[in-house]
Amino acid sequence: MSESEEPAKRTGRWPLSVGTFLASFLLLALLLGWWADHQRLANELVDAKLDREVKSRQIQRLREDRFDARFQAFSSFSWETFESKWTPDTYVVAVEENRDRDALPALSNALFLSEEASLDAVVERLIPKVLSPSPQVRFNALATLVAQYRPRSSRMEKHTQNLTDVILVQLRESKDNVEEVKTVLDALKSIGANPSQAAIDEVAKIMNDGHHPLAVLATLTAGKMDVSLKVGPRLIALIDQKHEDWALAAKHLHEHFPKAEAYEYLKSKYREPKFGPNQLTLIEAMNEIEW
User: Which UniProt keywords are listed (predicted)?
Assistant: First the structure.
């Protein structure tokens, strides 16, 4: 091979000049920069849309709350069949015979405002009624008893164990009846802190069953019954799997996580394609967070 052919071979190995290579590199860098800016602007657009929707829902909710307050101010309860000066026995009869669920709040309030001795006498008579064969009596008795658990009132604490024992029986007997179980879980959630470990364990079984339709409600209930339970991660797991009641978990997530973390998590779900049809639900959940 001649000396004149050797440079030609070397030239064939490097078809691009250094200048062309640098130009290509710069072009690629520009394209990557453009793509990064495009993604950033797209995310900012999503965030702006989300913030606008959240604020819009806040305004709408404020208007609805004002309307509800005005409506309730004009609402009243008729005591047609209930004696104004009741006794524990006549009160229990009124609870048993009541067929108007809208009347229960006023009926319950009358008991709440009574003297402690009267309340104790009624509660002792009503607790067994929670296991009545009559669905109406069961519902009325449980609703009336649970309504006595209110903030800054400790008069029901001494009755909690006995009431929970009866509720636990109802929970076990109605485990195949979703509506009955929901009523029981709602009751236990309203009662709050509970000394019954057996009841907490029973609720936890439902909480840990990802296929149970009331898993989310059970999780929230367990968190109320035992505040030492960290149910936040369980709520997130139920949201991630998109449990049929995941919206309830999203709505209450901020109660079990720092507000900022809950907001950012829900915001991340807003961007996921899986939750695309449910963006309004996520906005409503974020709207529950009060800063």
Answer: Membrane, Transmembrane, Transmembrane helix
